[in-house]
Amino acid sequence: MRELLYRIAEGYVPTLSEIENILSLNEEDAEILFKIADDIKKLYFGNSIHIRGIIEFSNYCRANCKYCGLRCSNDKLIRYRMSKEEIINCAKEAIDAGYKTLVLQSGEDLYYTKEILGDIIKSIKEYADISITLSIGERKFEDYKYLKEVGADRFLMKHETADELLYNNLHPHSTFNNRMSCLKNLKQLGYQLGSGFIIGLPGQTLRTIAKDIMLLKELDVDMAGIGPFIPHKGTPLGSEKPGSAFLTVKVIALSRILLKRVHLPATTALGVLDKKYRDKAFFAGANVIMQKIEPYNYRKLYEIYPKTLEDKKSIKQERQELEIYLKGLNLEISNDKGDALIL
Ligand code: 5AD
Ligand code: SF4
Asked: What is the DSSP letter of 200?
């Protein structure tokens, strides 16, 4: 196993069966996987972590993903939209607190036309030289093109699962092919591209996860969010089991060894499920953390999965506490924008 992992670190592309074996390692044997992933992370990124600020600006969603609390069929959820001014003010406050990357995320909400989003991007970019990442779901090629032209730098859109049948079953409003063509369009337009997937979806196997990792490689992504499934009562998958935090960390570690330069967050979902494993992820390949920065009254409504809320603080105070926390783990805080590492 050790030899196989070193070969992958040197460029060997493992078979799906080999990936399944690696992902089956027990706690004790997985330490070598984590150690190699940590070494590769340090080689590419040193000891520093990028903190990204995320503004979840609307919880309206036209999509109906069977696992997500924001799905359009969930009529129990109170919906909100932040105004242009609210979003821009939140962004400015975050920039003043030290953020160099802001992620603008929402459900698939076409209320925000490309012109509205464009105005927001332009205003933020006029205020400071930071990176803007969009995470707004499937749109027309023209929209993606316009938003890139006005200044968006990056785009996050997970492929969720590489199993086409499972994908189509979990996403009744769209198709796997459609998602792939959106991801390819974004890449072609020159966005720094993030994909990712969920660990522990009902119907998923280790083979599916092996294919998920290989799909990240094929898409040549710059970033990948890999998080565990957390059941939400207001969805058709509400009574299913959550994903495994341990398996999630193994998948992050193997992705680091295989993909090398890619930005990998210790995902929010991993932290919600098990804080201990989220910390572990920083020593098993992860080099990014995302911090919510929208006002608190919206945070509780952006309920993709159930979670408890932290005490109310200012954006600046919250960032300082996060920095202290990371430093307490002997990690450093990155001072740059954390662009895609192109070799
Ligand atoms: N558990 C874990 N992750 C989820 N997501 C949506 N619902 C859930 C859930 N119940 C993730 C998806 C999506 C991102 C915004 O949140 O991967 O891309
Ligand atoms: Fe909407 Fe995204 Fe949730 Fe799907 S995962 S329902 S697209 S917010």
From this structure: S
Q: Is 179 annotated as a binding residue?
A: yes
Q: Confirm whether pTM is higher than 0.95.
A: yes
Q: Is 106 helix (H, G, I), strand (E, B) or coil?
A: strand
pLDDT of residue 188: 97
Q: Which of the listed residues 64, 108, 174, 268 should we mutate to test ligand 2's pocket, taking the one with most ligand atoms within 8 A of CB?
A: 108
Q: So what's the ipTM on this one?
A: 0.99
Measured distance CA(299)–CA(37) in Å, rounded = 33
158 in contact with ligand 1, CB cutoff 6 A = yes
Q: Atom 7 (ligand 1): residue with closest C-alpha?
A: 68
Per-block average pLDDT, block size 10, for the chain (343 residues)?
97 98 98 98 96 98 98 98 98 98 98 98 98 98 98 98 98 98 98 98 97 98 98 98 98 98 96 95 98 96 92 95 97 93 78
Q: Is 18 annotated as a binding residue?
A: no
Q: Which residue has the tokens 């990690």?
A: 331
Contacts of 196 (CB under 8 A, 6+ apart): 156, 158, 159, 160, 216, 223, 224, 225, 226, 227
CATH topology of domain 2-333: TIM Barrel (3.20.20)
Question: Per the annotation, does 135 bind a ligand?
Answer: yes
**What is the pLDDT at residue 154?**
98
Q: 107 CB less than 6 Å from ligand 2?
A: yes
Measured from the Cβ of residue 74, the count of other Cβ atoms closer than 10 Å reads 18
Ligand 1 centroid–CA 115 distance in Å is 27
**Helices 2-9, 16-23: crossing angle, 10 deg rounding:** 120
Which helix (DSSP H) or strand (DSSP E) does residue 7 occupy?
Answer: helix 2-9
Domain range annotation of the chain = 2-333
